[in-house]
Amino acid sequence: MKKEAANHPSFSSLCDFVGQKIHHTTSRANVVAMGYKFVGVKPLPKEEAVAKGVNFLSEVFIFAVAGTVITLETWRSEHHNALKSAANKAKEDEKNAELEKRFRDLEDLVDDLVRSLPEKSQANYHRLRRIRGGEIDNDEPSMESCIKRNSGLDLSWLTKLLGL
Questions:
Q1: What is the C-alpha to C-alpha distance for residues 84 and 37, in angstroms, rounded to an integer?
Q2: Scanning 90, 100, 113, 154, which has its CA 20 to 30 A from the CA of 72?
Q3: How far apart are CA 26 and CA 30, in angstroms?
Q4: How high does pLDDT run on average in the chain?
Q5: Between 163 and 83, whose confidence is greater?
Q6: Dist. CA 146–CA 116, nearest whole Å
Q7: What angle do helix axes 119-132 and 46-116 make, rounded to 10 degrees?
Q8: Is residue 120 predicted with pLDDT exceeding 70?
Q9: Residue 160: which residues within 8 A CB-CB, separation 6 or more?
Q10: pLDDT class of 163 with cuts at 50, 70, 90
């Protein structure tokens, strides 16, 4: 960039201006930091000012590119994570829908089995479900014993499956 500043008068004047401003600012900060009153500063020779300006502009350019790259990479990473989360959520929703369907199928199967029981066993089954659901606080015999006693069927596997 230093060679380009020497060849292009407009870029050279920009670098000179930036170099003079940097020199003025740093000189003022040093004088004030030492506790003196700032009166003024002698300007730098053109070559030194251009060199300082070129160094400053090149560093600004490098930091701007690095900041842009970091920003874009962060955005890309977040976008990728959002897409991944959406895909995982869709899979989870699909699994939940499948489980709900299986649960409804099992409930239908239980209802069909209860309908096939004699009427007294059905009443006991529904009463037991209300007791276990907290609607009735009673010491009643288990559903297994009600069904076994009234129909002779052993459905202990079904009660374990349903969690009753």
A1: 60
A2: 90
A3: 6
A4: 82
A5: 83
A6: 14
A7: 150
A8: no
A9: none
A10: low
* Cα-based torsion angle of the residue sequence 96, 100, 102, 103 in order, rounded to the nearest 10 degrees: 130
The label of the residue with tokens 């699994």 reads 95
Angle at 54 between CA 48 and CA 56, to 5 degrees: 105
Q: Which residue in this structure is represented by tokens 């970091």?
A: 70
Chain centroid, CA 157 distance in Å: 43
Q: Are the C-beta atoms of residues 153 and 122 closer than 8 Å to each other?
A: no
pTM of the model: 0.52
Q: Is the pLDDT confidence value at 18 over 70?
A: yes
Tokens of 157: 């596997």
pLDDT at 113: 76
**Per-residue tokens: 162:** 């349903």
Question: Which H or E run contains 38?
Answer: none
Quick check: 156 and 144 in contact, CB under 8 A?
Answer: yes
- Counted residue by residue, the chain has a size of 164
Contacts 24+ apart (CB under 8 A), 90-97: none
Between CA 69 and CA 74, with CA 71 as vertex, the angle to 5 degrees is 105
